[in-house]
Amino acid sequence: MSEETHKKIHDEKHLDKLTVKELRDIAAEFPHERAIHDMKKEELIAFIKAAKGIKDEAPLKKKKHVAKIKMSKPELKAKIRALKGLRRQALESSETEKAVLLRYQISRLKKISRRVVAG
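-> structure tokens emitted (119 positions)
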């Protein structure tokens, strides 16, 4: 692949990763009515894409996984207390692997309880 072709592909896909100075250099190659040095990064990217005829693809929005919460706050707190007791017993009997797993479960339940309070 030639260097020019590689650079063109690089420009089309990675304009948002370039610095403002690099974008200004690229934008200076195209005829323009507005001063390039007054443009912000987003404006420069839009200008370059319009000048090159690149269609702006809508960025894919990542879906946030929302777990259904089946327990109420008091039930969650009771479950956390029970797991803390089991973890304490595991630590006293030198079962470190079990204690680590219980710690992860407690942490996950705490995060869920925060979501219950917030939502």
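The chain has a mean pLDDT of 80.
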